[in-house]
Amino acid sequence: MILIYFDEAKDDAEHRHYQLGGIGVAEENLNTVETRIAQIAQEAFGSAALTRDTELHAAEIYHRKRNFKDWTDFKARIDLLRRLVAILSMPEVLRIDIQINCEALYGGPAPSDIAFMFFCERADELVKFKKTIGMLIGDRESDQFAERYATALSDYRVEGTGFAFGKDITNLVDSVHFTHSHLSRFLQLADVYTWLLQFRRRNEGSENFRHLAVLDLFKEDGVSLFPTKYKSWPT
């Protein structure tokens, strides 16, 4: 089985792209990947325990918020992101990138619902190609949010996805499971991946040295954040 963790990065008035990103880890690789993330937490906070005080979120690292408000050294924060990027580049980590161009939408479903539909399609294709099954795990923001996605996946498994060229969902099992991000290192890694994808799209071409410090992470030796599966829509 492959466990697939996902997170969202919302669009705003200046940047009209909604991002849904996910990472997939086969069950036999879970311990290897989790251990590496836990090592980062241990070194950053002095504890690898799963608590809000040891939570790793890319935006908070970059902007010096919450657990990183005392990290005044910008280079140290970039180095922390670099170590997380190295984990995302591991061959054991599969990546799914869904981007919705909100400016090109005219009515119809919300960008988040469209993105989740495409995410289910790509996740199902991924696990089918690997000749296994998959389960989706998301960040529990609210009960309403969780129920909407769980209901959507249930419908897709019965009826297929909703567009004219919809797909049958055959290899995603059970429901969408949700937990709070501070209780899952994998959700935190999905957060980092999703944030990086949106950051690159928002700041590509920028000459700001802080932007360049993050954008340069994509170009370093050994880094490969190219998605295993992706969808950008509408084109």
Any overview of this molecule?
The protein has 235 residues and is of the alpha/beta class. It has a single domain, classed as Nucleotidyltransferase, domain 5, CATH 3.30.420. Helix content is 42%, strand content 17%. The protein contains 7 helices and 6 strands. It has helices at residues 30-45, 58-63, 74-88, 111-129, 143-159, 185-203, 209-215, and strands spanning 2-9, 17-26, 94-101, 134-139, 177-179, 229-233. A 6-stranded mixed β-sheet has the order 5-4-1-2-3-6, with helices on both faces. Strand 1 (2-9) and strand 2 (17-26) form a beta hairpin. The chain is globular, with a radius of gyration of 17 Å.
Q: Can you give me a brief rundown of this structure?
A:
This protein has 235 residues and is α/β, with parallel strands linked by helices.
Topology:
Blueprint: E1 2-9, E2 17-26, H1 30-45, H2 58-63, H3 74-88, E3 94-101, H4 111-129, E4 134-139, H5 143-159, E5 177-179, H6 185-203, H7 209-215, E6 229-233
Parallel strand pairs: 1-4, 3-6, 4-5
Antiparallel strand pairs: 1-2, 2-3
Helix pairs in contact: 1-3, 4-5
Number of domains: 1
End-to-end separation: 32 Å
Largest sheet: 6 strands, mixed
Strand content: 15-25%
Discrete helix count: 7
Kindly state the percentage of residues in helix: 40-55%
CATH architecture, by name, is: 2-Layer Sandwich
Which properties best describe this structure?
single chain, six-stranded mixed sheet, alpha/beta
